[in-house]
């Protein structure tokens, strides 16, 4: 038997028109990722009936939903559909703000197993969370939290009419060369940062009903944008802003060197804690400052993203590849190719 290997696993996604339904002749987009943990989470209830021999009588299968992370490196144009779904908004030209429009995807994993590959698919998937991390001299990471309604049985072939667009090839952003600007307004002296983390959370919750095995729907909870700054202690201005509970604005521009860039703006932030702490010998004094964003009336958003196309032409994605029947032959020839 052929063992499936992580380096030969393909992850693809497609937009759904009807939540939970893969469109006909699906135009799959191959995803760029580092690791993923999309799983079908079975929900069971154990019997607690009393028996004089103390044995358990049954474990009942009562439901299921899709959960799991997709961990990625952040690059231009690669995740624009995911960003729109995360922010529950729509790109208006090159601008995106948070809103209330739910969007869903189907995800497909193909496991290369020689003659007969295995496909698993996950339906009605929402982007619930994003953890965006900028660390000094490191690649920018973007880790996504997914929730979905269910998964059909594994398959041995691609869906009829499927096409697979090759993954994007834009460079990965890093926090050394690709931070074109980093601005913190509302503070007299802008602090120098060793790290910036941003967490976006839709706080989705499942809606279950009697007579339905899979999740009936997901509801939108409060839209939370939180994060933290790790700032080198050069002045007392940041500490004073924490004490004064001042309104702070945070924005960062990531540019990939080809002229493609994102400006990520969080216009109104409250710094919720933080003090300078002496770390001992051999280390700079830093401040760990958590923050929570609140709605900004002027920009009519809690977070906004503006994209600039330089190295690619908007909004054309990578070319579609021909439909392939992965069940009929050994397709190892395609591994490592853009198909």
TrEMBL record:
It comes from Rhizobium leguminosarum bv. trifolii WSM597. This is Phage tail protein.
């Amino acid at each position: 038997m052929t063992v499936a290997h992580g380096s030969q696993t393909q992850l693809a996604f497609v937009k759904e028109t009807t939540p939970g339904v893969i469109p006909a002749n699906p135009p799959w987009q191959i995803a760029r990722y580092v690791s993923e943990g999309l799983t079908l989470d079975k929900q069971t209830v154990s019997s607690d009936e009393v028996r004089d021999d103390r044995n358990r009588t049954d474990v009942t299968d009562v439901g299921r939903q899709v959960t799991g992370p997709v961990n990625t490196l952040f690059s231009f144009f690669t995740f624009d559909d995911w960003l729109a779904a995360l922010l529950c908004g729509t790109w208006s030209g090159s601008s995106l703000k948070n809103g209330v429009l739910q969007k869903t995807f189907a995800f497909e994993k193909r496991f290369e197993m020689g003659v007969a590959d295995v496909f698993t698919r996950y339906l009605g998937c929402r982007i619930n969370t994003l953890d965006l991390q900028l660390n000094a001299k490191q690649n920018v990471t973007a880790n996504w939290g997914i929730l979905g309604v269910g998964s059909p049985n594994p398959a041995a072939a691609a869906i009829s009419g499927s096409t697979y667009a090759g993954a994007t090839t834009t460079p990965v952003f890093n926090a050394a060369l690709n931070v074109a600007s980093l601005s913190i307004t509302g503070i007299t002296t802008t602090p120098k940062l060793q790290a910036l983390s941003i967490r976006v959370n839709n706080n989705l919750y499942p809606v279950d009903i009697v007579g339905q095995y899979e999740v009936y729907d997901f509801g939108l909870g409060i839209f939370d944008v939180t994060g933290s700054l790790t700032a080198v202690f050069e002045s007392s201005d940041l500490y004073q802003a924490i004490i004064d509970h001042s309104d702070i604005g945070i924005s960062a521009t990531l540019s990939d060197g080809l002229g493609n860039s994102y400006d990520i703006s969080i216009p109104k932030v409250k710094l919720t804690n933080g003090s300078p702490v002496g770390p001992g010998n051999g280390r700079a004094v830093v401040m760990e400052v958590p923050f929570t964003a609140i709605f900004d009336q002027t920009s009519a958003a809690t977070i906004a993203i503006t994209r600039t196309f330089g190295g690619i032409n908007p909004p054309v994605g990578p070319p579609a590849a021909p439909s392939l029947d992965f069940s009929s032959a050994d397709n190892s020839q395609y591994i490592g190719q853009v198909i």
